[in-house]
Amino acid sequence: MTQHRFTTPAPVTLDVENGSGRVAVHAGDVTETTVTVSGRHAEEVEVRHEGDVVAVRVPRTRLGFFSGDQSLDVDVMLPTGSRLDLRVGSAQVTSEGPVGEARVRSGSGDVTLDEVSGSASVETGSGTSRVGRVGEDLAVRSGSGSVAVREVGGTLNVMSGSGDVTVGTAGSKTVVRTGSGDLELGETSGAVTLTTGSGDLTVRHARAGRLSAKGGSGDVRVAVPRGLPVWTDITSMTGRVRSDLESVGAPAEGDPHLEVLARTMSGDVVLTHV
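Structure (tokenized):
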């Protein structure tokens, strides 16, 4: 095991490459950055501090970066508001505490981000992506892993090949596409586009905005508050369409309202109250 300490009274940019093992980041009220590397040949890992960048590099020729024959754990304590630029193969990534921005690219490792005040992006081949709160925009791309997002203040864009996607609270614009997974959105008042090939699409609380939902064989379920004016354009080839909503007439200019555009091949479409 090796440990490196750098005086960093301001937020830094953490730049890490690690093939397998773990990258664990802890952001807190500290004035130095501490990097601890554990594993075989940990002493050969390059750790340096230049300007506002703290970089961690695994020598690829000696330790087989991304080859799966070397496991290293990288634990980092850094100041709140720091930026993350992390690239891993099968290593797991976790970030606890508030960071400023985050960019994570993973081959097959799971990714967990606690809190990002700015924007964030996550790319993974088959790992699970879990994101807590993002203050601005969030982009997630996943080959076959599931995606769970708690809250996004800005634009949310998720693309997944076959994983389920769950979103708690969405911001002004949300676009989610998956090939065969279920999509679930907790609360929204903005523009939402949901697309899946064979999964179910569920919106548990659509306060206002425009909702477009397109599915193949899965069902579409949308719940809205009582008294909210709703305009609908719904088509299902062989599925059933059911609405429990009451007619409240057209909204006054400037009042909240919801537009629902739903298309399915064989799935049912259900509109109900929250």
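Residues 62-68 have pLDDT under 50 and may be disordered. Residues 12 and 52 are 5 Å apart (CA to CA).
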